[in-house]
Structures are given as C-alpha cells and as structure tokens.
Automatic annotation (TrEMBL):
The lineage of its organism: Bacteria, Pseudomonadati, Bacteroidota, Cytophagia, Cytophagales. Part of the 50S ribosomal subunit. GO terms for cellular component: ribosome. This is Large ribosomal subunit protein uL22. Gene3D superfamilies: Ribosomal protein L22/L17. This protein binds specifically to 23S rRNA; its binding is stimulated by other ribosomal proteins, e.g., L4, L17, and L20. It is important during the early stages of 50S assembly. It makes multiple contacts with different domains of the 23S rRNA in the assembled 50S subunit and ribosome. The globular domain of the protein is located near the polypeptide exit tunnel on the outside of the subunit, while an extended beta-hairpin is found that lines the wall of the exit tunnel in the center of the 70S ribosome. It comes from Nibribacter koreensis.
Length: 128
C-alpha cells in the first residue's frame, strides 16, 4: 500500500530542490530521514517534513500495520516547477532588470517492499 504527500508553492528554485530529492530517491524511509536531518541544503527540512507527512498518511491508511515491519521505501520523488513571481530590480541609467522568483511543487510517494523469499526458492531449485 502506498501513500502520497504533496507540497505546493515552495519558495525555492526547482533545481535546488532536485539536488536534495535526488539524495533520497529509492532509499528506505529511515535512511532518508537520517540523510535529511543532517543535510545542509535549505530544501532538506521541507522535504523531511513532507516525508513525515507521507509516513503519517501511510499510517492512517494502514492502522493495523507497524511502520517498522512494513519495510517502507521512497518510491517516487517528483519536483515540478511552480508559479514564478516576476519582480523588477533597479539598474543603472534608469533601467530595470527582471528578477524571477521561482517556486516548486514536490510530490513524494512511499511504498512497502514485499519481502522476497529468495532463500526458499533457491533451496527448491537445488532439490530439483
């Protein structure tokens, strides 16, 4: 069972947020939380809070299951471009330079890995 959490209109550029998102893509939830806790990039606390939100969404959907036993991992992290605010900054000789203040939308999906029974299947192959 997967859970989704979305974060819209984060006031940082998508390029900077993708640097942090690429760190945690495909990792287990506990490892990703540890990485985000000590990451120096400004997008890390926002992604950490989003990951905790996705975790609570998963727990709400699976009230009878334990998080420790579920073997959760980050299935998908998507960072899209959001609304761009356009501002003018004074420039020499009465001109104005355009400043683009970028924002982004982050979508995070977590899922549980199925437990692979590879030991039993390899033993059955040996018996044949």
């Amino acid at each position: 069972m997967e859970a989704v959490a979305k974060l819209n209109n984060v006031p940082s550029s998508p390029r900077k947020m993708r640097l942090v998102a690429n760190l945690i893509r495909g990792k287990s939830v506990t490892r990703a939380l540890g990485l985000l806790k000590f990451e120096a990039n400004a997008g890390a606390p926002k992604l950490e809070k989003l990951l905790l939100s996705a975790l609570s969404n998963w727990q709400a959907a699976n009230a009878d299951a334990r998080i420790e036993d579920a073997n959760l991992f980050i299935k998908e992290v998507k960072v899209d471009e959001g609304k761009m605010l356009k501002r003018l900054r004074p420039a020499p000789q009465g001109r104005g330079h355009r400043i683009r203040k970028r924002s982004n939308h982050v979508t995070l999906v977590i899922d549980s890995k199925p437990v692979v029974e590879s030991v039993e299947s390899s033993e059955s192959n040996k018996a044949k």
